[in-house]
Amino acid sequence: MRKDVRRSLMPLFFHLHDEDHSVAQASRKALLGAAKLLKRRQLRKLLETEQTWRVAECLLAENGSRAEEYLDQSLPYLQSPQEPLREAACRFMGLAGQRLRDGHREKLQLIYKALQGKANDSSPSVSSLAVQILLMLGPAVEEPPSGFSLQALCYWFLRAWRRRTRALGDGWLCCRSCVQS
Asked: What's the pLDDT score for residue 172?
């Protein structure tokens, strides 16, 4: 039974963002029940205080080993007709991508490819979010140039610069004009 409840966490999380308020409320109640059953205090606290934007972080933090499974479950939500569900899927994939950076190149490429399709989404908020995540994940997905060349030097310099700014917490992706220059 616990296994089935664990499998339902991601669909319930996504439906917290459903346009139909009754569906969102029912998902919140079901997710709260699942958190109690699975004895996840942090998740329960976030749901009780209605901090839905932090639920994905909590799920990934408590179940880092399930990030790949959660990622697979999130892919269909990118195709949802509801904008809030597509946006939640993009956000989740960005969070999962940050956690999967080292040693999960195939999954990062899967995220990258899936989000490339959302870069031209009909919703400006979804497409903007997808582009931001693509820019953030790009260096982890790119193949480094081989040998010694100006291109390889630029690649390694840019990669080091991005890591430095992430480590400082500057959030280097403050605006598109900064990235384009």
From this structure: 44
